[in-house]
Amino acid sequence: MRKIDPEILAQKIKEGDRFALSRAITLAESNRLDDLKLAQHIISLLPVSITSKRIAITGIPGVGKSTFIESLGKYILSKDEKVAILAIDPSSSLSKGSILGDKTRMEDLSREENAYIRPSASNGSLGGVTSRTYEAILLCEAAGFENILIETVGVGQSETLVNEISDLFLFLQLPGSGDDLQGIKRGIMEMADLIFVNKSDSFQEKLVKDAKLDIVRSLQFLPTKSSQWKRKSIIGSGLIGKGIPELWELVNDYFNFINKNNYYASNREKQQLNQAERYTIDLVNQQFLKLLKEKPLELSKNLSAFEMAKDWLNNHTEIDIK
Known about the structure:
Layout: H1 6-14, H2 18-28, H3 33-44, E1 53-59, H4 65-78, E2 83-89, H5 92-95, H6 101-105, H7 107-110, E3 115-121, H8 133-142, E4 147-151, H9 157-163, E5 168-173, H10 178-191, E6 194-197, H11 205-219, E7 232-235, H12 244-260, H13 263-294, H14 305-316
Parallel strand pairs: 1-4, 1-5, 2-3, 2-4, 5-6, 6-7
Helix pairs in contact: 1-2, 1-3, 2-3, 2-8, 10-11
């Protein structure tokens, strides 16, 4: 394989070369420590955006995320702005694969010159340092994509992760799913900045209005967000583009708001610190996994599993557990 020159690759990324961008993201998502170091070197040569929009988009399965994202992406393009879409793959921790189907589900958007769609591995990659959706964001921004849409697969652990690496959290909801809302609102609704009631064209008007009312009532009982932004909801349909212009106006209102009160800058610093903490844990884990292979645990019938682990740490590391 031809050796990668980080300076040349970084320059190509700044010039908007999609192949170079994809190659750098692949390096960042690799389980090889050498690839990770190379990816970090490339990132260090790139400019850091202080104006981009990192938008997390989630919702229960079947809410119409892909259709909605394509509609939103096309609207962003109509404003002469570029957009990158990162899809978090929950199965990658076992298969090392990606949701390649996202490009087919967003067929129109994938053909646009100013749009970039990339599956991104989830945080549970086995044997690696970590999944690097955060690094994929940095690389896309350096390539000129100022609007980053991060799609998750549904309600779960990936939502917590994506909330820590995004500026705005957009939650998609279906009319007539009040029971589902009750079950998840303490987790997802607290993270949400905007709630979009999707597929309003496919449900009876009463169900749509009831969903809107249910959300408004629920928001009253949630704690104020750190950004001081008051959560807002909107009704629409990604399929026919209803509510998309109004939603994008709210998105811009949100970013104007958090820029004025300096939350945007402080949150970006927090994102970087959170990522550093994840790297610390993952790098330590990798070193211990390597050491465990070299000096495996030995079964002792006189000790519990916890005591065996404690003894191993005391005997093979500088960690002293009493």
